[in-house]
Amino acid sequence: MLAVFQEISKFRHGLAALLKYDWVPVPLVYPQVIFLAVRVYFVICLFGRQFIVTGGNPSGVRFITLLWNTCVAPIELKSLYVLFL
User: Fold this and answer.
1) Residue 35 pLDDT greater than 80, yes or no
2) Is the pLDDT score of 47 beyond 60?
3) What dihedral angle (degrees, nearest 10) is formed by the CA atoms of 15, 24, 79, 38?
4) 0.85 surpassed by pTM
5) Among 5, 49, 55, 82, which is least packed, fewest CB within 10 Å?
6) CA angle, 49 as apex, 43 and 51 as ends, to 5°?
């Protein structure tokens, strides 16, 4: 019977700790900024990764592909590696 009371007590202490986190107000601007930043990122990706139809064979490497492969892709691969450890 004592073990049951101890488990209930631990559960209540966990709820009290959770309630303390709820008292810290998060300004409304932060979720809106994150929402907007994510949407803008995906819109830029949609337009940035599309090919432009030209009359002849394309020559050379596109700048956006070079920029993506040198700057963004290694960061994403590193973050994916950390997620799956």
Assistant:
1) yes
2) yes
3) 120
4) no
5) 55
6) 125
**In this predicted model, which residue has the larger pLDDT, 71 or 84?**
71
CA 65/CA 68 separation, integer angstroms: 5
Contact 64, 49 (CB under 8 A): yes
For the chain, give every domain's residue range: 2-52+60-83
User: Measured between alpha carbons, how far is 34 from 40 in angstroms, rounded to an integer?
Assistant: 10
Alpha-carbon span 78 to 74, nearest angstrom: 6
Q: State how far Cα 85 lies from the chain centre.
A: 17
Q: Are the beta carbons of 35 and 51 closer than 8 angstroms?
A: no
Quickly list H helices, 23-62. Answer: 29-48
